[in-house]
Amino acid sequence: MATRTITGNLAADPEVVQAGNVSITKFRVIENTGEYRSGKFVEHDTPTTHFVEAKFELGQNAADSLHKGDEVTVTGSEHTNSWGEEGDKQYGRVIDADQIGVSLRRAIVTVTKNARDEK
Length: 119
Prior knowledge:
Number of strands: 8
């Protein structure tokens, strides 16, 4: 699996789904991509959509903190997933998030640390 870092905006609020005993937070990040041509940055016509999944505390914190439109940076391992019936299968790239950060460019954030379980 390749490690990727992307920056973009959430297309919708995160969704939490159960997979057995594990909660997985899923969301889409829309990234405006482009390239430099003759020294000028030219945006591509169509933005790139990334599917992101986060598990455990990272996923729960993302679900509790993030909302549609928030600008984020996501780093994680990328792989291909498939869904649908045979003959109508669709494929997409998914990033299993290791880190999720919120951009402070257009937002103010208050950091609240999770309480650790004392045993």
